[in-house]
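Following up on my earlier thread - several people asked me to post the actual chain instead of describing it. Fair enough. Here it is, all 186 residues.
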Amino acid sequence: MSNTPFSHAMDHPAPTTQAAAAATPPVALTLEERLAFINAAMTVRLDEAKVAYEVNTAHIDTEPVDLADVVTVPVDTGLSPPPDLYPTPAAALLQRAHHRLLTGGWCKDALFDEDGASCMLGAVRAESGGDRGLESTAVTVLMDAIRRRFGNDVDSVPGFNDAFANSRVPIRMVDQAADLADARGL
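Reply from S.P.:
Thanks for posting it. Predicted structure:
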């Protein structure tokens, strides 16, 4: 062996250190310590899974959930119309049409069906009392409300109504149109 300063450059543990470490019995962990270790390990695994999920689904186009589709409230199914909440004629007409759809039922592919249910336009027409000017104003506001939410590709109220398999969205749009008409003072 040479006496150069680099002859002992590799550091190996001494045999007595290895033997001492092997002779030390493992320390028993308490339940709380084991749970803390498991919690830390699971947190790491869940974080990795979250990142993997985000990476694997980043290319999938999704639409945000509309809370109005999820959150529901009890519906007043009494036969009497609700009190007029809107002082303006078109807003009050749309409110009555909304109530008619809730209580009388909703249909598609016809203004009215054999059971008395109506489509969006049928409900507006029935509640207008024959006032074609008021009906036209209400339908115009209804189209504006629909286009605000669904874009300008919607051609007509009946076309929009008939595009749905259930009443949830069409009835909600009549209610939103009543709010819009009131905001416009119509």
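Helices lie at 15-23, 31-57, 67-70, 89-104, 120-127, 132-150, 157-162, 168-184. That should answer part of your original question.
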